[in-house]
Every structure is written in C-alpha cells, then in structure tokens.
Amino acid sequence: MSSVFKALSDPTRRRVLQLLRAGPMSAGEIAARFEVSKPTMSAHFAVLREADLVHAEKAGKSVIYHLKLSVLEEALLGFVHSFGAGAEGSRAVPDDIPDKEPAT
C-alpha cells in the first residue's frame, strides 16, 4: 500500500490518474498536457506502474496507459479501514477515548 501512497503524493501523478479516468491515453497524449521533460514523465509513469495504479499496453510505437481504478479504490478503502472506519462510514472511537470533554 505504501507504493500507492508514494504514487499519490505527487500532484503530477495525481493529475495523470485524473486524465485516465476519462479513458486510456497514450504516453505522448498524457505528456503533452505537462510542461516537464520526457524523462521526468517516464519516471512518473514508472512510479504509477510500480504502484499498480496503471496498466501499460504497447500499441505499435506507442504505450497506452489504462487506469486500474480497482487498485486505487482498494488502497483507499484499506487506508480508511486502518483508522477503524466501518463500511457504513460510521465513526469508530476506541473505548478509552471519551466522546466529550469531562465537565468541570
């Protein structure tokens, strides 16, 4: 899960994921939306692949990227559940933490 959060920690990579929500795009189409060098974009793509957030598919000389939304959802749900939040979205509070400050 840490590789997912490493990938999400960068605004450029988050923007790539947002772009891919609309559908698959080539590496060139994605890179054209950013003012960074090709090696920098390649590094961003590598981090996203390592986190398994995208799937890369060769199409001739192009690489087409697909969003793996299920991986992102799973990581985010795991993160939420690590804080004790239930599927219903209820607020789980440990027994030793009072809901209110004691009256003085």
UniProtKB/TrEMBL annotation:
Domain HTH arsR-type as annotated: residue spans: 1-86
Coiled coil segments of this chain: none
UniProt keyword annotation of Zinc present: no
Pfam family, one: HTH_20
Protein name as it appears in the record: DNA-binding transcriptional regulator, ArsR family
Keywords assigned by UniProt, alphabetized: DNA-binding, Transcription, Transcription regulation
Tree of life domain: Bacteria
GO terms for MF: DNA binding; DNA-binding transcription factor activity
